[in-house]
Design the sequence.
């Protein structure tokens, strides 16, 4: 059994990541991630549950504000995914110093970006909420909620970098503790602030902000106490060509994915509110939170696979790269299929947890949930394949996947389909875009596996252990 309670030295970590059986290794890294993500999603659903007790407009307001947080998340994902991918390959190649400089540079950039975006959003908060699809009844709720959550944006952004880089070095347990702690604190504070202190939607926002700050402090504590392989220091801030090229080169696909998701969220909110009002908007918000539970399982396997893939790709152990990819795909599809079958059968009962006294909400929500569930097996292939591209340092393939799913396919569909089919068009736009994206991902993945085979046969070195040159 792989233990992660104590600090593992870089050489020991390298040996573990490049020699342990890949199935055992991926499961050991994926399970803490899946557990923390599932619990976080359940707490997120609890957050939605508490907000739904205010009224349907408050639930809709949280959905309206969500794309704004996706924008902040897009910047954070760009820095964290770029730094995480490069640092894993560097650690696999044995270059700990360059990995430290990469992580430190991404961390400082994330704090700076989170602060700037947060200030801009607070200044223009009401126009932003209107742009994001707020209705007259949900506008004030959206403004109140977004304002207090945005205050924590620097901590939220920095936590993304800390979480991703700690996870990519193979310290899944530490990363999960940070994530899980914030979620637990959030759900404890929600009923206290919303109902006992009678703060309403502001209470929900304060609970979220406080939990994000505490999550950041826990993750940063692990780094300061030297429980991680990589180090973060101000003196390690190294915005040179090599590091910035890798961070932004590999992080840009993640930025596009999250940024386009924000735009998609705006279009989806506007479409739902136009064709179905607060009821449709609230239904979309509730089903989104439920779907995210299953997505967390997929992402958990992806996050278990990614560091194993990156380490071994950097170390030139290509057979382990291919073996880990196949294991993750098979396991992810098998587990997800079992879960979603249950979800499709009991969709009305699941939706009724959030509005048992509203039959229209149950009817619309059940339809949305079943359609979204039906496409999830294809999402396994898309997410694991995209992790393969990112872990191996293939930004073009990763960018294509991000652009097709959220941009090239979804945006035209969400504009055209509602005009033809009304609210039904809004509901089927994202699942249809995901399926088309799956069709695109298949040849890209086959091409990537052929490339790995070619490199393996030729004996090429995919990454060099760069040294820092002032």
Sequence:
């Amino acid at each position: 059994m792989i233990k992660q309670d104590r600090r593992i030295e870089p050489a020991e970590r390298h040996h573990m990541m490049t020699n342990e059986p890949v199935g055992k290794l991926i499961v050991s890294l994926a399970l803490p991630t899946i557990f923390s993500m599932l619990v976080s999603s359940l707490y997120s659903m609890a957050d939605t549950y508490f907000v739904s007790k205010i009224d349907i407009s408050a639930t809709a307001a949280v959905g309206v504000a969500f794309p704004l947080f996706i924008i902040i998340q897009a910047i954070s994902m760009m820095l964290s995914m770029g730094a995480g991918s490069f640092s894993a390959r560097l650690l696999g190649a044995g270059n700990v110093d360059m990995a430290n400089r990469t992580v430190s540079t991404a961390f400082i950039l994330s704090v700076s970006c989170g602060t700037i975006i947060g200030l801009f959003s607070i200044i223009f908060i009401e126009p932003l909420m209107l742009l994001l699809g707020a209705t007259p009844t949900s506008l004030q709720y959206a403004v109140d909620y977004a304002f207090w959550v945005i205050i924590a944006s620097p901590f939220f952004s920095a936590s993304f970098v800390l979480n991703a880089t700690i996870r990519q070095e193979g310290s899944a347990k530490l990363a999960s503790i940070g994530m899980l702690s914030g979620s637990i604190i959030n759900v404890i504070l929600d009923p206290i602030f919303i109902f006992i202190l009678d703060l309403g939607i502001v209470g929900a926002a304060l609970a979220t902000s406080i939990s994000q700050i505490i999550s950041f402090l826990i993750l940063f504590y692990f780094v300061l106490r030297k429980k991680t392989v990589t180090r973060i220091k101000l003196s390690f801030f190294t915005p040179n060509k090599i590091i910035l090229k890798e961070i932004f080169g590999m992080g840009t696909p993640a930025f596009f994915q999250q940024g386009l998701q924000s735009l998609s969220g705006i279009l989806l909110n506007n479409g739902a509110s136009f064709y179905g009002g607060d009821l449709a908007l609230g239904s979309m918000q509730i089903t989104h939170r439920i779907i995210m539970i299953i997505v967390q399982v997929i992402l958990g396997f992806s996050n278990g696979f990614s560091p194993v893939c990156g380490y071994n790709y950097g170390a030139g152990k290509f057979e382990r790269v291919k073996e880990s990819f196949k294991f993750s795909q098979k396991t992810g599809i098998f587990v997800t299929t079992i879960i979603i079958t249950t979800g499709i059968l009991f969709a009305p009962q699941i939706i009724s947890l959030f509005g048992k006294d509203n039959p229209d909400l149950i009817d619309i929500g059940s339809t949305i949930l079943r359609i979204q569930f039906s496409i999830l097996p294809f999402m396994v292939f898309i997410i694991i394949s995209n992790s393969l591209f990112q872990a191996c340092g293939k930004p073009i393939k990763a960018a294509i996947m991000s652009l097709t799913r959220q941009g090239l396919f979804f945006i035209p569909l969400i504009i055209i389909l509602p005009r033809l089919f009304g609210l039904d068009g809004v509901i089927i736009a994202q699942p249809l875009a995901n399926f088309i994206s799956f069709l695109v991902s298949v040849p890209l993945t086959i091409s990537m596996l052929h490339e790995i085979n070619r490199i393996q046969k030729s004996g090429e070195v995919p990454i060099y252990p760069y040294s820092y040159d002032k």
